[in-house]
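Let us work through a complete example step by step.
Step 1: write down the sequence.
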Amino acid sequence: MKRIFYPRLAMTGISKNRKIYIPYILTCVGMVMMYYIVSFLSTNKTVSAIYGGEQMQSLLGMGCWIIAIFALIFLFYTNSFLMRRRKKEFGLYNILGMGKWNIARILFWECVIIAVIALLCGMISGILFSKAGELLMIRMLGGEADFSFYIDPHTVLQTLGIFGALFLLLLLNALRQIHLSNPLELLRSESVGEKKPKANWAIAVLGVILLAGAYYIAVTIEEPVEALLYFFAAVAMVIIATYMIFVSGSVALCRILQKNKRYYYKTNHFISVSSMAYRMKRNGAGLASICILSTMVLVMIMSTACLYIGTEDSLRSRYPRNIIVETYSIDDTVVNAVSDTTNGVLSEKGVSPENVLSYRYLNIAGYLRGSSVVFNGSNLSAMESIDFGGMKQLFIVPLEDYNRVMGESKTLNSDEVLLYSTKSDYDYDTITIEEAGTWKVKEIVGDFADNGNDSMSVIGALYLFVPDINAMTQAFDNIISKYGSDGEVDIYKHSYYAFDLSCGDDVQTEIENEIDARLRTVSEQHGIRIYVEGSASERAGFYALYGGMLFLGILLGIVFIIGAVLIMYYKQITEGYEDRGRFEILQKVGMTKREIKKSINSQVLTIFFMPLIAAGLHVAFAFPLIQKILALLNLSNTWLLIAVTAGCYVVFAVFYIIVYLITSREYYNIVSTKEE
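Step 2: predict the structure and record it as tokens.
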């Protein structure tokens, strides 16, 4: 009997508090299941055998760490709600004669029971759903599925080890809290923190300033590479500011509402605002957590979904034509040999090139300082060297090729150029290239045929259309002779030849391989490099990358949604038990249940939708930043991103409202009954 006494007390405690334990246990089960599925897929041999599978698995490997770290933080956070609710019960046990050692044994068995249920159910669910995840990934990668089923022992042991250690840490933390508390503190634990906090206006204002700074960074950055570099700084600023505003700013908001007599002195508002005022300092962190998790879900789902939906657009942006032949020479003999060889293969295969795009260009990287392009990094100031927006790819294209490609008939003097700038505007009338000369910018043209290099590059580009490319070649030879030995400047001569084919991917890949094989001979004969690329052969890799991002985004989104929902649920449950005594007193002095319900709705609506509105603001201001970062992944379809973002927010808002209706009903049931 003595052996089962403590396990029975633990089971009784879990059963009597099932309203708070069942969601917690289900969350633990979900975390274990998610981790196993992601870890299983990150090492799955069937997935790795598919083209693009290894890239996807590298993403999933990072996802395993993210889930493990989030599970550690989140389960510690939610476990605090359980301990807060149970401390009163443990204090009663202590007063009735149980020592802290006896309470520790109850906690031990509670932790063991929860861990066994979570690990057993989570592993079974993970194993069952791992095949569904495998089939979904194979579908995204365009591979062929087999219906064999197996369990990965290494993944099982890894999952059990990580979550076993996590539950051990939760137990040690609970024992620490019991050890440091005395019986009186345990009995009063549910009422701790009920003093009205003072509105800390300094922190609230600082939070607003910090948030405004993050928003300013998001909407003013123009260069994609700067957006990528400043993204994490902006995210950190938003997180810190959100917690400042919700913890201190929400208290200040309650004070403002209390001073507004027309709003405050109404039955439903008076009770709700008074109730919120003393608890907002403690619960502001919970609201901020809901807001941050909601923002993370929205950003992850909208960006990964947009990338996957727009895969074909991204593929076309990177490969403007189906087949691309790039020759590192502008010599007519070499260019003609490459063209003749390529067209010979097409003729043998019985296909004709369509939408042919060919031109010559020189490519060099430099730094734009005002209207001058410089190459020696040692001449840059410290501030200039970290201003990545000034880094530019310089493309020099002969005017005759520009006119032929664009169907124009423009003319230039020897000291004039046409200019086309990507990713940022060029606002000067002249342009100077170090060691080469200065030219007048006769016209800023609005477009030029993309060769895929600019869409792939993280920095902006300047296209200069010049009357004499041979003169520019000589100038760049001088630049190389001056800086080339230091490795600071490199110049390439290119001939670009690309075309579309009206045949399937298999035939296109076959033609690409044949052209590549034939041009190797030309490359060896002339001692130059020739690269052959095709969109058909790269399509699987694009879908693997973006499909992996979407798959991981969905899984992490589910994990974060579970976290947000559980915080919402426990917040309502905890506040319901705290407010029940107050509402009982109000009913005794004449307040009706209808008035109580109106007061509850006023309170929940005021608090509950603050995180949703704030998350919407965060996403709206982050939109320009996200747009530029996605441009680095070849996605330039702004309208697609707008549509996906709006759709994700609407769907999430509907889900959020459903959670609100469920949790507010639980809150009302608690405050309107006498059940413990």
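Step 3: interpret the result. Residues 381-386, 485-490 have pLDDT under 50 and may be disordered.
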